[in-house]
């Protein structure tokens, strides 16, 4: 009996026959001129092929053959009993692979489609990637050496490898293929991607952040941007080893977090703000109640007493408001949850006002991130975000709110060599007239640098500026004694008092 021949009255074949009968013949418009040609080797689960990252920039594009692409497009929906049946299935699950392959063999036998062994392998692997994985980019998703994946329509897929962007050889069959993958990403999260909602934030099962923009806004075709996170949650020791900051700075940051200073992590896109926020959050004592608030959950806190909150989109088909929860809604609600610490993944709108209010009313020790290019820009950005809350507040009042709420701004940056480092740590010392006063405590400098400010080159070091922060006396109340040399002055004394 051939490998692909129907197996009598087996349950899987009966299930496939019922499914095909109910769905109709999926190959009514395809010429079936010959019996199915049996593959020359048994079907085995195929792992995504390994690629040489250095060669991908010049590699030839991998296009699916036209006939297999047509079969793949027609069979995707036919192999599922419901559109969301495989949403929680994994690409490396042999049992789920077996279900899909059994159904595939049943449909091909019934339709008498002639395929060569090579065509069958290509069709099988493509369908497994589409139904159990993430389509054409499945190898990139599985390869942890790629930190970011950018789909710019069906034909162009870029990826970040060791801090550098390279064009990969992977392509989708067409726009419908990209949309299929996009829907598989957003559907398990109960989010909607359609003409009414052409842009959506989501995440992969491993926590990777996903942003999708579809037509008509995406002129080159549906755009998918995936930012992956390390399988192992990075620790402070990892960042010290990577050269992101020094051991002295690490202990200073630990003292700041334990001493309940309000901290803002500032930086550009892809600079490592979320990673640093994770590390800072790890310093929060285990006996404190932490509430995290994010657009899409990315923070990975190790403490036991953590409440994780995530924004919710409106209920599909509703008035566009029913069922929706914004960051601002969650910040307001979190104040009734008796939090010791509030950690907001990112302030990007009017929730900045609610965050400042929380910091000013007993919820000290809170953490958040803001998109900006320097600590000074961070203050200006916060002013703008507060005004977006719709409150008619004079600018000097807004600045006083910022100066009274925030103690420390940590500037994170991705340098020209692709490395991500802390490049500036500044204290907000208060107000002088109508201006917020900032004082740099640490600054990233490279050898021979003469220009002011932090360096954008690699090979430097985060150095003290010689100024002792005003809040240093607060550290001793929480068991830390930091000598003057930490800040570039005085004698060498840098200890933590564990008593």
Kindly list the characteristics that best describe this protein.
499 residues; alpha/beta; 9-stranded mixed beta sheet; 6-stranded antiparallel beta sheet; 14 helices; 17 strands; 31% helix; disordered N terminus; disordered C terminus
Number of helices: 14
Estimated structural class: alpha/beta
Low-pLDDT stretches are 1-58, 491-499
The coarse silhouette is: elongated
How many strand segments?
17
The proportion of strand residues reads 15-25%
What would you say about this model in short?
With 499 residues, this protein is of the alpha/beta class. The chain has helices at residues 11-23, 66-78, 94-111, 117-132, 138-142, 175-186, 236-242, 247-258, 273-282, 327-334, 351-360, 375-387, 395-405, 472-477, and strands at residues 146-152, 157-161, 164-167, 199-203, 209-213, 223-227, 263-267, 290-294, 306-310, 341-344, 367-371, 408-414, 420-432, 435-445, 461-464, 480-482, 494-496. The protein contains 14 helices and 17 strands.
């Amino acid at each position: 009996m051939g490998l692909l021949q129907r197996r009598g009255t087996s349950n899987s074949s009966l299930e496939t026959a019922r499914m095909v009968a109910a769905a109709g013949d999926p190959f009514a418009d395809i010429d079936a001129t010959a019996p199915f040609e049996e593959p020359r080797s048994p079907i085995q689960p195929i792992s995504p092929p390994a690629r040489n990252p250095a060669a991908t920039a010049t590699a030839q594009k991998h296009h699916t053959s036209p006939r297999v692409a047509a079969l793949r497009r027609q069979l995707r929906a036919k192999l599922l009993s419901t559109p969301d049946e495989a949403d929680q299935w994994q690409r490396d699950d042999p049992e789920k692979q077996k279900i899909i392959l059994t159904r595939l063999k049943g449909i091909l036998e019934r339709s008498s489609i002639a395929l060569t062994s090579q065509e069958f392998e290509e069709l099988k692997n493509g369908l497994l990637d589409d139904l159990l994985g993430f389509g054409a980019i499945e190898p990139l998703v599985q390869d942890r050496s790629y930190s970011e994946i950018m789909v710019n329509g069906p034909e162009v897929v870029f990826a970040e490898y060791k801090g550098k962007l390279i064009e990969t050889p992977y392509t989708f069959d067409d726009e419908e293929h990209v949309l299929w993958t996009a829907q598989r990403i957003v559907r398990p999260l109960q989010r909607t991607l359609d003409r009414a909602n052409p842009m959506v934030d989501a995440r992969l099962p491993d926590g990777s952040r996903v942003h999708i923009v579809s037509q008509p806004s995406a002129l080159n075709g549906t755009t998918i941007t995936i930012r992956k996170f390390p399988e192992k949650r990075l620790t402070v020791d990892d960042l010290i080893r990577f050269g992101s900051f020094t051991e002295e700075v690490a202990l200073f940051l630990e003292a700041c977090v334990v001493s309940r200073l309000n901290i803002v992590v500032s930086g550009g896109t892809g600079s490592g703000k979320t990673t640093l926020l994770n590390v800072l959050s790890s310093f929060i004592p285990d006996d404190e109640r932490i509430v995290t608030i994010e657009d899409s959950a990315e923070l990975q806190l190790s403490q036991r007493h953590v409440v994780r909150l995530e924004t919710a989109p409106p209920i599909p088909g509703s008035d566009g408001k029913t069922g929706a929860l914004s960051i601002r809604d969650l910040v307001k609600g979190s104040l009734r949850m008796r939090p010791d610490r509030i950690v907001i993944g990112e302030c990007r709108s009017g929730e900045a006002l609610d965050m400042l209010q929380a910091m000013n009313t007993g919820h000290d020790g809170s953490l958040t991130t803001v998109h900006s290019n320097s600590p000074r820009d961070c203050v200006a950005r916060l002013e703008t975000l507060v005004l977006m809350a719709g409150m008619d507040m004079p600018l000097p009042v807004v600045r006083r709110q910022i100066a009274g709420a925030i103690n420390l701004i940590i500037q994170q940056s991705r340098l020209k060599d692709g490395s991500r480092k802390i490049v500036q740590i500044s204290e907000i010392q208060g107000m002088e007239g109508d201006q917020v006063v900032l004082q740099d405590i640490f600054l990233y400098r490279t050898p021979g640098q003469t220009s002011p400010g932090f360096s954008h080159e690699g090979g430097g070091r985060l150095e003290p500026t010689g100024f002792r922060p005003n809040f240093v006396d607060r550290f001793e109340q929480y068991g830390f004694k930091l000598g003057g040399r930490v800040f570039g002055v005085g004698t060498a004394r840098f200890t933590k008092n564990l008593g």
